[in-house]
């Protein structure tokens, strides 16, 4: 064997390294929204329903991250509205009669449970859901 050259035999872990390299390149090419969606799908609980599989008038548990949290108090009773994103879609969460909910802010991970409704414009919403904050 010549000095400075490696053995030409089979390399250990060659396929695994190739897979890691391809995975890293794929992650570099994905837009940030897709990376976030992939991360949220990995983190979500097994006993929850993906948003793209929700159906109106059914009880459901959804897990994800809050994209926005807003107080609505325009002439009627106040409500806190949040958009939950789980990597497959988003659902609105609305707590009526509330001005603030401690711990709810954009980026918070949570699991929400309640009955799904479909608004006139086709968006999905869960009114007054029970929720658990996740670390």
* Lateral strand order in the biggest sheet: 1-2-3-5-4
Give the distance, in angstroms, between the N- and C-terminal Cα atoms.
Answer: 55 Å
- Briefly, what CATH class of the domain at 41-134? Mainly Beta
> Which bin fits the share of residues in helices?
10-25%
User: Which regions contain 5 or more consecutive residues with pLDDT less than 50?
Assistant: none
* Radius of gyration from the alpha-carbon trace, in angstroms: 22 Å
CATH topology of the domain at 41-134: OB fold (Dihydrolipoamide Acetyltransferase, E2P)
Our estimate of the beta-strand percent is: 25-35%
Topology order in helix (H) and strand (E) letters: HHEEEEEE
Class inferred from helices and paired strands: alpha+beta
CATH superfamily of the domain at 41-134: Nucleic acid-binding proteins
Please provide the count of β strands.
6
Query: In CATH terms, what is the architecture of the domain at 41-134?
Result: Beta Barrel
- How many helix segments? 2
